[in-house]
C-alpha cells in the first residue's frame, strides 16, 4: 500500500472546544477510505483539514502535521490554492454555483486560468462521464444547473471537483440529501473513481460505509478508535466501542 | 365587549395606521401634478429662464441636477461598493472595522445642512474648487456613501456563504469568489442601494446650497469647476426669494424634480424585481 496522506498526531480546537484529539492515520493511495462514527466525532473537521478549508474558520487551533505525498501541507509558504486543486471536495448538500451545467463543471479550470476551448470541452466531457452524469445532461449543458434534480446536482458537484483532475477526492456525506437510486449512482461512480483517485468519504450511514470501504476509520468524540483495511471492522471489530456502534447499540 | 369586537377594532386601527402612510404621498403628488402640469411644455423643459425666472424654462437647472447626480455617482459608487466589499468579504471583526461601521452609522445621521457646511469648508475653500460642480458632487457623494455602503454590504452578506466555500474548495482565491460569484449575485441589491442613495442626493438642497448652486445662471456649465443651477435649489429660490413668481412655474419645477426622482425610484424597484425573478438560490 502506498501512503497518499499521512495524518500525524493531529489535534484541533474550535475556540476552546476540542474537535480532534491526537489523531494519527495513513490514507492509502487509490482506494476508498471511510471515516465513520456518530455525529460530532470530528470526521468532517478532519476532512476539511486535508484541503485546508478550515483556514476560512476563525479562532481555531491545530497541532500536528498533515503530509500529502510526504509534504507538510501546512508548512509556511505552501500554496493553499494549489493544494485545493490537488485535493477536491464534495459537500453534504449539492451546492451548484450560479450558472449553467457547463459553467459549473468548468469553474475550477477557469479559475486556474485555463482558456483553451478544446481542452475545456475535453475536460467537460471527461468529468461528467466520470461522475456518471454525461448521458443525462449532454443535451442540457447550457441549462441552469439549478434546473437539475438533487441527485444530478450532486453528481454535477462531483464532476466539478473532477474537472481539476485532483489526486484526492474528499466526500462529506455526498448522498445525505439523495434518494436511494441517486445514491446508488453516486456510489457506483465512487467505485469507478478509486482506480484513479485517492478517495476519503464520510458516509451518511453505516450501511454505506460497509458498501464502499476499502479502509475504514472509526471516530468517536474526536478520537480515532480503530482503523483497519477492508470490511473487517464491520464484521469483526476489535474495540468494544466500535462493536457497539456497528451493531447499532448507539449512534 | 367580546373578543370578536376587540379584534375588529384592533384591525381597524391598524388599517387606519397603514392608510395614513399612503395619504400624504397621494396628496403631495396629486397637488403637484394638478397645479404643475399646465406649466410643462417643450419650452419649459429646454429653454433658459427669462425675465427674472418668471418666464422661459428651467433647462439649466435640469442639466445641473443631472450633472450633479452623475458626478455624485462617479465619486460615491467606487468608494461605496469598494468599502462594502472590504467590510463584507475581507475585514475581520477588529476595533478598526467596528470604528468604520460606527462611522458609517453616524454619517447617515448627520443633518444634510452640516454636509453643506463641511463641503464649503473642505472642497470650496480649503481645496479651492470654488463654488463648482466638483465641490457639490463630492459633498453629495459623502452624504450618499453611508446609504450605498450599508445597502451593498447587506446585499453581499445575503449571498450564501456556501458559494465562497465552494470557490475556495476549487482552488479559487477570495477575490475570485467575490469577482465571479458573490458580486454578480449581490448586484441587484447593490444597484438598488446606489439608486436610492442617488435619488436622495438628487433632491437635496442644503448640501448644494453653499457648494455649487447658482441663484440665477442662464447658461450651461462649461467645466466641472463651474457653478450650476440645480432643481431643488432653484425651487427654493423661486418659492421664497422672488416676489410675484407665478405659482404654475413653482409647481411645474416641483413636478419635474419629482418625476426625475420618482423615475429613479421606479427604476430601482424594477431592477430589483427583475433580478429577484432570475435569482438561482
Q: Give the overall silhouette of chain B.
A: globular
Strand proportion of chain B? under 5%
Structural class of chain A: alpha/beta
Largest interface: A-B, 26 and 20 residues
Please count the helical segments of chain B.
Answer: 11
How many beta-strand elements of chain B?
Answer: 2
Query: How many H/I helical runs of chain A?
Result: 10
Radius of gyration of chain B: 23 Å
Average per-residue pLDDT of chain A, rounded, comes to: 90
Supply the number of structural domains of chain B. Answer: 1
CATH architecture of chain B: Orthogonal Bundle
Radius of gyration of chain A over all CA atoms, rounded: 18 Å
Distance between the termini of chain B: 49 Å
Number of strands of chain A: 10
In terms of quaternary structure, what is this? heterodimer
Descriptive account of the structure:
- The complex is a heterodimer of chains A (251) and B (281).
- Helices cover 35% and strands 27% of the residues of chain A.
- The mean pLDDT of chain A is 90.
- Chain A has a 6-stranded mixed beta sheet, sandwiched between helices. A 4-stranded antiparallel beta sheet of chain A has the order 2-1-4-5, with helices on one face.
- Chain A has 2 domains: 132 residues, P-loop containing nucleotide triphosphate hydrolases (Rossmann fold); 64 residues, no CATH class.
- Chain A contains 10 helices and 10 strands.
- Chain A has 251 residues and is α/β, with parallel strands linked by helices.
- With 281 residues, chain B is mainly alpha-helical.
- Chain B has a single domain, classed as Orthogonal Bundle (MetI-like fold).
- Chain B has a two-stranded antiparallel ribbon.
- In chain B, helix 3 runs parallel beside helix 6 and helix 10 runs antiparallel to helix 11.
- The radius of gyration of chain B is 23 Å and the shape is globular.
- Chains A and B meet through helix 2 and helix 3 of A and helix 7 and helix 8 of B.
Amino acid at each position: 500500500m502506498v501512503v497518499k496522506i499521512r495524518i500525524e498526531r493531529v489535534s484541533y480546537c474550535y475556540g476552546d472546544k476540542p474537535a480532534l484529539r491526537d489523531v494519527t492515520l495513513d490514507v492509502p493511495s487509490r482506494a476508498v477510505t471511510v471515516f465513520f462514527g456518530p455525529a460530532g466525532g470530528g470526521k468532517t473537521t478532519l476532512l476539511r483539514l486535508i484541503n485546508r478549508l478550515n483556514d476560512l474558520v476563525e479562532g481555531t487551533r491545530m497541532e500536528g502535521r498533515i503530509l500529502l505525498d510526504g509534504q507538510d501541507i501546512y508548512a509556511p509558504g505552501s500554496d493553499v490554492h494549489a493544494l485545493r486543486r490537488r485535493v477536491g471536495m464534495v459537500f453534504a448538500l449539492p451546492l451548484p454555483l450560479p450558472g449553467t451545467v457547463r459553467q459549473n463543471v468548468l469553474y475550477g479550470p477557469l479559475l486556474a486560468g485555463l482558456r483553451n476551448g478544446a481542452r475545456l470541452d475535453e475536460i467537460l466531457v471527461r468529468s461528467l462521464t466520470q461522475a456518471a452524469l454525461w448521458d443525462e445532461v449532454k443535451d442540457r449543458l447550457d441549462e441552469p444547473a439549478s434546473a437539475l434534480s438533487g441527485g444530478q446536482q450532486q453528481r454535477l458537484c462531483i464532476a466539478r471537483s473532477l474537472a481539476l483532475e485532483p489526486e484526492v477526492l474528499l466526500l462529506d456525506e455526498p448522498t445525505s440529501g439523495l434518494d436511494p437510486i441517486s445514491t446508488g449512482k453516486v456510489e457506483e461512480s465512487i467505485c469507478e473513481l478509486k482506480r484513479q483517485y485517492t478517495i476519503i468519504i464520510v458516509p451518511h450511514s453505516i450501511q454505506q460505509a460497509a458498501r464502499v470501504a476499502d479502509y475504514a476509520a472509526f471516530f468517536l468524540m474526536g478520537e480515532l478508535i480503530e482503523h483497519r483495511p477492508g470490511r473487517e471492522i464491520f464484521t469483526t471489530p476489535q474495540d468494544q466501542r466500535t462493536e457497539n456502534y456497528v451493531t447499532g447499540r448507539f449512534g | 365587549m367580546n373578543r370578536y369586537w376587540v379584534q375588529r377594532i384592533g384591525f381597524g386601527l391598524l388599517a387606519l395606521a397603514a392608510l395614513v402612510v399612503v395619504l400624504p404621498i397621494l396628496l403631495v403628488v396629486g397637488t403637484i401634478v394638478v397645479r404643475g402640469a399646465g406649466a410643462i411644455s417643450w419650452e419649459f423643459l429646454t429653454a433658459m429662464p427669462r425675465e427674472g425666472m418668471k418666464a422661459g424654462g428651467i433647462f439649466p437647472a435640469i442639466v445641473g441636477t443631472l450633472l450633479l447626480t452623475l458626478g455624485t455617482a462617479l465619486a460615491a459608487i467606487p468608494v461605496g461598493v469598494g468599502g462594502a466589499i472590504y467590510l463584507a468579504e475581507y475585514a475581520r471583526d477588529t476595533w478598526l472595522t467596528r470604528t468604520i461601521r460606527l462611522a458609517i452609522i453616524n454619517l447617515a445621521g448627520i443633518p444634510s445642512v452640516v454636509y453643506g457646511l463641511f463641503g464649503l469648508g473642505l472642497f470650496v475653500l480649503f481645496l479651492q474648487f470654488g463654488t463648482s460642480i466638483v465641490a457639490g458632487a463630492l459633498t453629495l457623494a459623502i452624504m450618499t456613501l453611508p446609504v450605498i455602503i450599508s445597502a451593498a454590504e447587506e446585499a453581499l452578506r445575503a449571498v450564501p456563504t456556501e458559494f465562497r466555500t465552494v470557490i475556495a474548495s476549487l482552488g479559487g482565491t477570495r477575490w475570485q469568489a467575490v469577482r465571479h460569484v458573490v458580486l454578480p449575485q449581490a448586484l441587484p441589491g447593490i444597484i438598488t442601494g446606489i439608486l436610492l442613495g442617488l435619488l436622495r442626493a438628487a433632491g437635496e438642497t442644503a448640501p448644494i446650497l453653499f457648494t455649487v448652486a447658482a441663484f440665477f445662471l442662464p447658461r450651461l456649465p462649461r467645466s466641472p469647476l463651474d457653478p450650476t443651477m440645480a432643481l431643488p435649489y432653484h425651487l427654493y429660490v423661486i418659492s421664497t426669494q422672488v416676489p410675484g413668481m407665478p405659482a404654475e412655474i413653482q409647481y411645474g419645477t416641483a413636478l419635474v424634480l419629482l418625476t426625475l426622482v420618482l423615475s429613479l425610484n421606479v427604476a430601482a424597484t424594477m431592477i430589483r424585481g427583475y433580478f429577484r425573478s432570475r435569482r438561482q438560490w
